[in-house]
Amino acid sequence: MTTHEGVVGTTLSSDDSAPLGNRVRHVRSGELDGYAAISGGTVGSKKLWMGRVENPPSSATDNHHHGESEAGIYVVSGHPVFVFHDGVQEVRIAADPGDFVFVPPFVPHREENPDPHEPVVVVIARTTQEPIKVSVPELYPLKATAAQ
C-alpha cells in the first residue's frame, strides 16, 4: 500500500541514490552492524540508536550507564533482571517477554540473565545516534539534582 496523503515538499524515493535522511530505511535482521540496527553508521540517524542485544544464560553485564542518553528496552524473549540503586537500596526489576523498561540518563545499572538455559533477547532504543556505555565500579546511590 502506498499513500502520499499530507506529504508536502518531500521527495519520496525508494532508490539507493536518495539522501539517507530523505527515505525510509529497512534493516533486515541479518544486516545488523554488530548489535546496531539503526544508527548514524547504518541508516544516517542523527538522534536515535536501536539495536538487538542477546545476553547468554547465567550472565550479567558490568555496572554501567548510558551518559546523557535515555534508553528504552523491549524484552523479546527470556526473563532479564534490571538492577540499580535507588538511593536507599539495590532495586531488582524482573521483566518478561513483551515488557518495556525505561532507563534515565546517567543512572548506573546492570542487566542480569539468571536463567541457566535460556538467553535473553532485547531491543534497545537510545536517544543518541550511537550507543554510549560508561562502565562504573559499582551501583552507587542516585543523588537529587537541581532539576528534580
What structural keywords apply?
148 residues, mainly beta, four-stranded antiparallel β-sheet, globular
Written overview of the protein:
3% of the residues lie in helices and 33% in strands. The termini are far apart. It has 148 residues and is mainly β. Strands 1-2-10-5-8 form a five-stranded antiparallel β-sheet. A four-stranded antiparallel β-sheet has the order 3-9-6-7, with no helix packed on it. Strands 4-11 form a two-stranded antiparallel ribbon.
What topology emerges from the helices and strands here?
Blueprint: E1 36-38, H1 40-43, E2 49-55, E3 59-60, E4 64-65, E5 71-77, E6 81-85, E7 90-94, E8 100-103, E9 109-113, E10 120-126, E11 134-135
Antiparallel strand pairs: 1-2, 2-10, 3-9, 4-11, 5-8, 5-10, 6-7, 6-9
- DSSP strand (E) fraction? 25-35%
Query: Helices and strands: which structural class?
Result: mainly beta
Shape: globular
Individual helix count: 1
User: What integer is the average pLDDT?
Assistant: 84
| Major pleated sheet | 5 strands, antiparallel
Share of helical residues: under 10%
Number of strands: 11
Q: Give the ordered list of helices and strands.
A: EHEEEEEEEEEE
In short:
The protein has 1 helix and 11 strands. It is mostly beta strands and 148 residues long.
